[in-house]
Design a protein that fits this description.
37% helix; alpha/beta; Rossmann fold; 2 domains; 9 strands; 11 helices
């Protein structure tokens, strides 16, 4: 039984398969007329977000509600953080109100790991700096698995863009590789990781060469908020070399999937019309996020009884 979910490294292949199977079951629940099960009745899940979020925060809150848990939401703005309260005092104050799981997003790498040492509640990493975003990786893996069948053996995935500053790239590359995919990071040297230790990937600067062989094109947003220098000449230049334009998309195989964790910058890393095009599974990723987060919360807080 998992105690926390802090990194994809916490999960063996069998854990990944189990979570994705459970995610599949919960996806079926989310499609019922009444998309709710009593699995976590009496439990309380708090979202503790020190950074902005639309998808992750709302899908964790939706996931908890669909499992019949109570929810609390904390945002820095309007909280006593503005009066100088530390992260440790904040989480211990929230725990004293009686919570069973804390979903943490924080700009500092390792913050959820620290939180896990301060409280007894289960901790889920919802994105820590440029380090990890494990539930994004799980929803990406569920999405890809649903299109490929169980196992991603031999799937050729390119993750294009700002991998250096992307927690999504690190977690998703690890999860895809653990499930059998071949992952290549694509981008200018200034946006690729400084070191590939811990990254199960190849790298290239030549997106065009890869295009005809790819099963998945996974696009990243430029993480301006985590950059302290200008790392490429201009957005126009970036799009010219690394954007998924309509011309580049025409060179993909007909069944190549287009993925993006969101939020998108249409016209920069992806042409606006491709985001809704036939190869895009970007909306499916969001829907699968609720199911996979139900699976994570259920694994952390559930009794292990079958899903009703
Ligand atoms: N993909 C993702 O983490 O999106 P949000 O920042 O909106 O949660």
């Amino acid at each position: 039984m998992m105690r926390h979910l802090l990194s994809i490294d916490d999960l063996e292949r069998s854990d990944l398969d189990e979570l994705l199977d459970l995610g599949e079951s919960f996806l079926a629940v989310t499609r019922r007329d009444i998309p709710k099960v009593p699995a976590l009745r009496g439990k309380t899940v708090v979202s503790l977000f020190y950074e902005d979020s639309t998808r992750t925060r709302l899908s964790f809150e939706t996931a908890a509600k669909r499992l019949s848990a109570d929810t609390m939401a904390f945002s820095v703005s309007g909280s006593s953080v503005a009066k100088g309260e530390s992260l440790r005092d904040t989480v211990q104050t929230i725990e004293a109100m009686g919570v069973d799981a804390v979903v943490v997003r924080h700009p500092s790498a390792g913050a959820p790991h620290r939180v896990a040492t301060w409280i007894d509640a289960a901790v889920v990493n919802a994105g820590d700096g440029r380090h990890e975003h494990p539930t994004q990786a799980l929803l990406d893996a569920l999405t890809l698995r649903r299109h490929r069948g169980i196992g991603l053996d031999g799937a050729r995935v390119a993750i294009i863009g700002d991998a250096r500053h992307s927690r999504v790239a690190r977690s998703t590359a690890k999860a895809f590789a653990a499930l059998g995919a071949e992952v290549t990071l694509v981008g200018p040297p200034t946006l690729l990781p400084e070191s590939l230790i811990g990254w199960p990937v190849a790298t290239t600067g030549d997106f065009d060469e890869l295009l005809p062989s790819l099963d998945v094109v996974y696009l990243l947003r430029i993480q301006h908020e985590r950059q302290d220098a200008t790392l490429f000449p201009s957005l126009r230049e970036y799009t010219t070399r690394y954007g998924l334009t309509v011309e580049r998309a025409a060179r993909l195989k007909p069944d190549t999937l287009i993925m993006h964790p969101g939020p998108m910058n249409r016209g920069v890393e992806i042409a606006a019309e491709l985001a809704e095009g036939p190869g895009s599974v970007i909306t499916e990723q969001v829907a699968n996020g609720v199911a996979v987060r139900m699976a994570v919360l259920y694994q952390l807080l559930g009794t292990g009884a079958p899903v009703a």
